[in-house]
Amino acid sequence: RAALAATDLLPSFGATEIERVTIGAEGRRIPSGFDYAAPAYLVLFMFINTLVAAWGMPVDRAAGLTRRTVAAPVRAGWVWAGEWLYRLAVALLQAGLIVVIGGLFFGVSWGDPAAVAAIVVLFALASTGAAMLLGSWARSEAQVTSLAPPLGIGLGMLGGCMWPLEIVGPTMRAIGHATPHAWAVDAFIEVVGGGATLVDVGPQLAALAAFAVGLLGVALIVFTSRVRRASA
Fold first, then answer.
1. Rounded to whole angstroms, how far apart are CA atoms 131 and 66?
2. pTM of the predicted protein model
3. Tens of pLDDT along 166-209?
4. Which tens digits make up the pLDDT trace of 25-57?
């Protein structure tokens, strides 16, 4: 009673004003729970596992299999395409499993199927491009298996697979978008969290396409050069 009586003697400062400030993109809803974790881990583990799958390329070269294949009436580009298509199939299969299991067992609302399919395919192309580049450059299986996990985890951290890039500063956000991961996660956030359609995530898809073309092109050049030196 004494405390209540004392509050009546306190001065009044009027109504309290509450100011609402949006950090990051205006009006953007970051999905929570499995709606964020499933797309983010899809991006993270598709990239890591695809990189690790490149271990067979230096093994084939060391065993002379690649050299013998190129000695046949088959161009180096076709040999490279065979290596790439196998890894692309693995990446797409893994992504499909995560999408199906996430939706059926964890209640993930993936949103527009066309947009999700476009994101998955383009990120798979970028991932396989990075894997083909690593496999073409590496001289041994050990180099691939020792470099792939830290590279994949580091790029995943920068790209928003561990936490939303909205919580970091503008400099780290810009650095993160130097990876394909950030563009894929951004697109998934828009589709899963904001109900965006294929057209709405056009800029992110264009960035992923640029990463895919660049990585695949460089990987083809490195692979062809390595095969020619081995055949000389």
1. 17
2. 0.82
3. 888 999 999 999 999 999 999 999 999 888 899 999 999 999 99
4. 455 677 778 889 999 999 999 999 999 999 988
d(CA 28, CA 193): 8
Q: Give the max Cα distance, the chain.
A: 98
Work out the number of other CB atoms within 10 angstroms of the CB of residue 218.
16
Residues near 230 by beta carbon (within 8 Å), at least 6 away in sequence: 61, 66, 67
70 touches 231 (CB < 8 A): yes
DSSP codes, 11-32: PP--PPP------SSTTPPPP-
Residue 70, Cα to own-chain centre: how many angstroms? 32
10 Å CB burial of residue 157 (0-12, 13-18, 19+) is middle
